[in-house]
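Example: histidine kinase.
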Amino acid sequence: MQNSQRRANRAIFLAVAAGFLMLGVAAVAVVWAYQRSQDYGQLVSHTIEVEAAVADLNRLNERIEAARRGFLLEDDPRFLETFEKTAAQIPVQIERISELTSDNPDQVARLSRFRTLTDRYLGLLRESVADKQAGGTGVKAQSLLDEEDITVVQQLRDLSDEMSIAERRLLIAREAAEHRSVYVSTIVAGVAGCLFVLVAVGTIWATRRTLRALTTTGIQLQGLNEDLESAVAERTAELQRANAEIQRFAYIVSHDLRSPLVNVMGFTAELDAAIKPLGELIDRVEEAAPDLVEEETKFAVREDLPEAIGFIRTSTEKMDRLINAILRLSREGRRVLALEAVDMNALAVSVVDSLQHRIDELGVTVETEPVPTVVTDRLAVEQIVSNLVENALKYLKPDRPGRITIRGRKTGGRVIVEIEDNGRGIDPKDHERIFDLFRRSGAQDQPGEGIGLAHVRALAYRLGGTISCESSLDQGATFSLSLPMALAPQQGAQT
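Written out as structure tokens, the predicted fold is:
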């Protein structure tokens, strides 16, 4: 069921992604087609502009011819003024046409010939005007235009017609291309619109389907959460009852063990006291009748019994310490936590001050760096830090100056307190083992019963935190205590 759902979701995702991709391609195509239409539109406008410029040049040629004729016939200076103005405009218009047709080699060649013929034509016109101003008629024959004038004018008109026809052909071709581009743009826009509608419909369908699935999943999750909350509450209650039962059991067992232990310790003391008169008796008998006391008896009274009593006393004292430690753990587990804002910097300084005599004796350097404030049980966290610093002092390397650093940082709503030393270190395989009750690591050359770190972990758990170790042999150790920024009141309740 889950596999089919995942396949369906993947298919929907791919379909929507493909639709949006196609829509993107269509948008690019629309932009391209629009740009092409713009380009063709500019080309059409350019062709019309060239054609209009050629027509303006033809009008200028006609105007200058009319002005010359008027001057030759009427000898009116106004015609001469028009003639000069038009003669000045013709080269300017030719340059404008040259700029417009610079990208068309055929038109450039025609315009070059046109410029040459224009210069020749203007020269002929100026000769006739100059002749008229000198008192002549300004004409070489019976008409105002002689054969040479007619030839040049005809050539100019032919070139003008060629240029106009060429531009008209370009105009027709470019208009056709523009129409095709508009047609293509319309088709592309239509396809893009259809794709947009399809993608929109598909997206709406997929969104509705996803929302329905999310709603169903939310309802299921709500039911599961309710079941989980009830299960967690039930399991928590069971754990609290089990924990309370274990604490009561530890307390009862410790008291029950203490009673026979006290008896053993008392009878051991009596035996130890009886050894002295027994030894004196053996000495007197040995002096009076040496043959009556065997060597085995003398060895048993003088060697075996004191040694056995010493072993018994050592074992009972160790067992007494273990029972006391179990009682402390039991009492600590029953204590109600008192939550307050704990200044961890002041707490670290207080711990260091309490151990200052031992620190000075060992010549250890202790550095404290800023530690964020936490809302927790002061006594419990002080016991944790104190125990970790004491352990660091206990397991330093004698062949190098000791250094201990207490520092902290805030991360993800929690405070990490680190106690780092440069001592003998801990084998990586024992990083978890050292937190077990009555378990120790490395050489057992320091006093202790293997309870301190177990107590530290139990306290850390009660404070909603964890304790971990990073170390390697001869490289020192770093213990990291992770605590919530603020312990919830229910977490501090008695368990």
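Residues 140-144 have pLDDT under 50 and may be disordered.
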